[in-house]
Amino acid sequence: MPNGMVDRRPRRESIWSVRAEVRNLYSWLFTALMLAGSGYIFASGIAKTLEDFWGLVATLSIATATISLVTTEIGGSIMVIASWALDKRDEWREKRRRRREERRQRWEERRQEGRREAYAEWEAWNTRRVAAERNGGDFDEPPPSLEGPGVARP
Fold this sequence. Notes:
154 residues, mainly alpha
């Protein structure tokens, strides 16, 4: 509409509203149900006259539109719920992955600490051994256990 002109046509509102993401599904479902229903009306011989046929098709179109709308809305709701559930699953998996990584890091830190303690024990033992050799004394202390600190030695 050019600038300055007013649109005097009445505004229209849609009675049936289908979300954009399910519009194609709605169209295919409506078409399939209409074709199947019309085929049934025609093939079954329920309608004796053309007037009866169109009356039944009119009723069928309202029923088909309703069924298609309800089906796509329920399907859309299921998709929303499924999307939420998948998001929750992904959050849970991410938390689990983080916990596993934290446990692995703590384990690695404890392992490194154990190594440092073992190296310190061996270093101290070796220092005592070298000092005893330098002073010409006997050194009969057994080496640190390879099984870890605090383990009784034979």
